[in-house]
User: What shape does this take?
Amino acid sequence: MTLIYKICSRSLWREAEALGRFTGAPVDRADGFIHLSTAAQVAETAARHFAGSDDLLLVAVEAEALGPALRHEPSRGGDLFPHLYGDLPLSAVRSVADLPLGPDGRHLFPAEIAA
Assistant: This one.
């Protein structure tokens, strides 16, 4: 099983739980797909796009459960990032964890990401 990750605000995730699916953050909807990151990419994503933001969640998603709607496409620096073309079904979510800020202002990731 391959895990990929979505960083989102607690309020957006609560909306997703109520709907039974995650329809994306405003940037996702504007771009036409849900931005996701691999374990190797997610810390840079947090630093680049969520610097200083608290009240965030790290959502771990089983990539294989997303089927052909998941595509790996080039983004910054030529890295291939996972993009989901469609809603994220909650059935594909394997865990949801707080993503707090550390004393240095950077996000603190679970051990399996930070390693």
